Amino acid sequence: MSQEQKFNTGDASQGSNTPSNNVPSESISAPSDVEVDVQHGSYRNRFKNLQGRTVGFVKKALRDHYSIPGDAEAVVNGEPVGDDFVLQGAVHLQFVKEHGVKGLLFFVISNI
């Protein structure tokens, strides 16, 4: 089994081992009490082992479990960031994808 296929099931006191609790074991670093809140749509969880990791790493690690599309944009504490952004401190990381702008066609046609 490759390093990327091993998963950390988290603390047993957290309840059931649902996919949203799994993070590849390679993400484990020095113990830290600082949590990173990760969200995509209705999927949301806090992880203590993401300090010093990049947004791209988290996106790749949780892609299947959180159904994160490849073109989703990362937002940290309300500010857009790139995949190379390094997570430091207690932050809220959210993956978003813009779906469209309602009424845009009317605006374009009415201004022709």
Structural description of this entry:
- The chain is α+β, with helices and mostly antiparallel strands and 112 residues long.
- It has a single domain (3-110), classed as Ubiquitin-like (UB roll).
- 13% of the residues lie in helices and 23% in strands.
- The chain has a five-stranded mixed β-sheet, with no helix packed on it. Strands 1-2 form a two-stranded antiparallel sheet.
Question: What does the secondary structure layout of this molecule look like, with pairings?
Answer:
Blueprint: E1 7-8, E2 23-24, E3 36-40, E4 43-47, H1 55-62, E5 73-76, E6 79-81, E7 92-96, H2 104-110
Parallel strand pairs: 3-7
Antiparallel strand pairs: 1-2, 3-4, 5-6, 5-7
Structural class: alpha+beta
CATH A-level architecture: Roll
Strands, count: 7
Question: What assembly state would you assign to the polypeptide chains in this entry?
Answer: single chain
CATH topology: Ubiquitin-like (UB roll)
Main sheet summary = 5 strands, mixed
Helix content: 10-25%
End-to-end C-alpha gap:
59 Å
SS element count, helices: 2
Q: What is the average per-residue confidence, as pLDDT, rounded to a whole number?
A: 74
CATH structural class: Alpha Beta
Query: What is the radius of gyration?
Result: 17 Å
What string gives the helices and strands in order?
EEEEHEEEH
How many distinct domains?
A: 1
Question: What distinguishing features does this structure have?
Answer:
Ubiquitin-like (UB roll); 2 helices; 112 residues
Compose a concise summary of this entry.
The chain has 112 residues and is an alpha+beta fold. It has helices spanning 55-62, 104-110, and strands spanning 7-8, 23-24, 36-40, 43-47, 73-76, 79-81, 92-96.
